[in-house]
Amino acid sequence: MYSQGLIGSGEQTTETPEILAAFQARIDADEKIEPNDPMPAAYRKTLIRQIGQHAHSEIVGMLPEGNWITRAPTLRRKVALLAKVQDEGGHGLYLYSAAETLGVSRKQMTEELVSGRAKYSSIFNYPTQTWADIGAIGWLVDGAAIMNQVPLCRCSYGPYARAMIRVCKEESFHQRQGYEIMLKLAEGSLAQKEMAQDALNRWWWPSLMMFGPPDGASEHSDQSTRWKIKRFTNDELRQKFVDATVPQAQRLGLSPPDPALAWNEAEGRYDYGEIDWDEFWAVVKGHGPLNKARVAARKKAWEDGAWVREAALAHAKKRAARQSVAIAAE
Amino acid sequence: MPAAWVAALIGLADDHLILGHRLSEWCGHAPMLEEDLAMPNIALDLIGQARGLYTYAGDLEGAGRDEDALAFGRLERAYRNLLICELPNGDFAHTMLRQFYFASFMQLFWQETESSTDATLAAIAAKAVKEAQYHRRHCAEWVIRLGDGTDESARRMAEAVTLLAPYTGEFFMADPEAGGAVAAGVLPDTKALQPAWQADIEQVFAAAKLVLRENVYAQKGGRRGLHTEAMGHLLAQLQFMQRSFPDMTW
After folding, report:
1. ipTM of the complex in this document
2. Which of A50, A134, A266, B75 is found 20 to 30 A from B174 (Cα to Cα)?
């Protein structure tokens, strides 16, 4: 999945104008910045924050979908969902590794997440109530994530851009899988159709919110754009998503829950209604239906697993010590 | 292969589905991200093996039951899995030790089944044996790490050994439905696998500094549908969709 418009960055930087200009020249020449290259402190911090938020989103995103693994309706759906959630964990792993190239450890990032300080995509603070939610997440949430992430494949920071190429391929597969779940529901019984429409009703607006605040209210798009971390504005990406998704909903015979949604012939795009930004900010600030439960679940896994990680380290030390004794004895 | 032996295949499939279900409960809650990937991976293999076995059992039975009808459409008393597969996960030590026991057993079982007189089962075994080998190695490494890790991990592993001891005997009891298939060389005689299994466990326990518990009274009944109280709750989740929305396509 799953990045959302970056929240809470806007770092100050202290390098000389010459250093900043030389760095900008490399960016402008479309050179990739690699881990050992000089980079402004604010570039590094922005990336650590963005990649960290993205990694956390993958990890927290395992929870709402994981909620249906044991209840999937068929064995085929069960293995597909299990593999999908596992893929999200894999994305988290690449992304934490990409962030580690910038000098922050996975442990530090995880501790920020479980303390509740780190942000992640707010969409995962909503509950998955029915099986159709698994379809809707694949179709809409992964669909929105792809809109956000495809441009990141050209991000100026090499390790992040390369991680995104693989992630996008898998996301695209997940999105089709989610759409296929919806398609089966749409072709099914009345109860299945109602389940599908209800899921669309609940996930539509949070999906539009995934692109982050409107351009006027976004604090730091400009610097990220100049550094080619960000290639499109939040509103541009949101519009692309709406334009791609509305015909897909029509094909399913479902209606997005927006009376203002209409094709604008003159502009060649869909107009859509006002997003409830109060709800968006409330969820970002921790007041979504499941913010506390999501962080608590990650915290529990981390704390309950501490003895396992300690034991693995202790065993590795013992083994190394035994090996060095054996070598000394030779 | 005669339809009379279908029940034995269903029992084997149930072992894999039910244990895969338990393992999948860890997804998103593991002690480290690597295990959040590894445990679902093993669960995927187990459920994949169950699918092959259910499909084959349904074909042989010829009553129109497909993999989903068999996996989701029975009452608790009709599930024939070994009890060890349905036990709640407990902590990571308990989960890994159980998985090691099962994988070590299944590796031996599939090795024998590769030369089954039934070509379909031999083909299922040829794929499954590679997967079981990998599961066995992964889980044995954890048993050793935790057994010979910290005081706490050693204590937890020793507890897991005690808790699971009554449930390993059932691996080697003859399945009342499998007698004909064993005699015909279709399925292995599990009793004959016990010495090799025991040797494998002892070898890993020696490296893990764990002590095997012997002469423990063995719980049994899974193969006759006599389950623990945990089973009904597991099935309530597993069957939730099929029970709430019967006869629909997903």
Report:
1. 0.97
2. B75
